[in-house]
Amino acid sequence: MTEAFDAVDIIRIKRDHGTLSPEQIDWTIDAYTRGAIADEQMAALNMAILLNGMDRAEISRWTAAMIASGERMDFSSLGRPTSDKHSTGGVGDKITLPLAPLVAVFGVAVPQLSGRGLGHTGGTLDKLESIPGWQAYLSNEDMLRQLAEVGAVICAAGTGLAPADKKLYALRDVTGTVEAIPLIASSIMSKKIAEGTGSLVLDVKVGSGAFMKDEARARELAETMVALGKDAGVNTVALLTDMNTPLGLTAGNAIEVEESVEVLAGGGPSDVVELTVRLAEEMLACAGVRDADPAAALRDGRAMDVWNRMIEAQGGNPRAALPVAKESEVILAPADGVLVGLDALAVGVAAWRLGAGRARKEDQVQAGAGVRMHAKPGATVRAGEPLMTLLTDTPDRFERAREALAEAVVIAPEESRPAQQLIIDRIA
Ligand code: URA
């Protein structure tokens, strides 16, 4: 087959700060997906994009080309609005679990395609798999049936969705090019647009435990993704939220499910409840539902009813006991004062080292492993009180988890209470 362009010319254009034409972009994504552009050529192009950027029109076309590389799902037969949420990932971020059933209470279908954890951030599928019997893999037909019957589904993305992204993401992961905003935005949005949701709320995390450590870059990512969504006809809104401190009081798998169920029962940590309710309000507004009261649906058990049906529809037993780690170790507060810092990255790395996460895609996670926190920033603590409990099945992991947490905790005198702001901004 005669190729329309030469990969080296395309690389040179971006290396020299040029702009790719729509035809060049379409060819690049297609040729890479079918193997006509080699990995080393795509790696060079990715690095040129990371260093020199892309303009709005290029990012939009790149995203469209990635969508065109695979199938597009269609939920129009459901006859009701659809809404999805995507988080850029953080520590203790279990919000999808209570959020999907909560939004479904109000007649909006939630098709939530989720992933697994890699590195220090947890994965929604890993958490749900700690529920005995629960299955992550559904056919498109089963997903549609569950959306019609239950209203919410959380499952693994099928292999047919944006295959170009799967190949590109794996390459970026090993070539230091994950952090390019045009590549992150197009990667996330191609999957969300191909999934066929009518509206989308993005939770863009900022802080030590997030992908984006500084607010300016997180804002740029959010603005780019919102524009891509709108260009594709998906009603899209983003919240910028804090990820310097873990969300809630648990980071792991089964312990995060347990905390999500507390939220669905009308309790749970206030930050998890606040973000769940706010994201539900945004999703419902984007889907055109007015005057809904998601906080009430958590208190009165309606969201829990949908949760139970959603877990059962995927083979899980929502009432079964969750796995518990075989071993635990407690970390005590070293001094009296106010806890002013509990570093999200350190807690995430500790949970990962305890076995809650994986270093390579093939690794197994431990369902019971993780970190249970007993205090959050703003709390008064006394020397010798338990601050955290480390959980694992393999006690030789405790030492490295403790090392990760060595600098994580900051205790200050009584008067220096921190100002907490979980939701930093809204970008529409
Ligand atoms: N998540 C994705 O799906 N893609 C990225 O590039 C980064 C995070």
TrEMBL record:
A GO molecular-function annotation: thymidine phosphorylase activity
UniProt entry tagged with the keyword Cell cycle: no
Gene3D superfamilies: Nucleoside phosphorylase/phosphoribosyltransferase catalytic domain (3.40.1030.10), Pyrimidine nucleoside phosphorylase-like, C-terminal domain (3.90.1170.30), Transferase, Pyrimidine Nucleoside Phosphorylase, Chain C (1.20.970.10)
GO CC, one annotated term: cytosol
Ranges of residues in domain Pyrimidine nucleoside phosphorylase C-terminal: 338-412
Alphabetical keyword list: Glycosyltransferase, Transferase
Any single GO BP term: pyrimidine nucleobase metabolic process
PROSITE patterns for this protein: THYMID_PHOSPHORYLASE
Domain of life: Bacteria
Record-stated family: Belongs to the thymidine/pyrimidine-nucleoside phosphorylase family.
Record protein name field: Thymidine phosphorylase
Organism: Arthrobacter pityocampae
Organism lineage string: Bacteria, Bacillati, Actinomycetota, Actinomycetes, Micrococcales
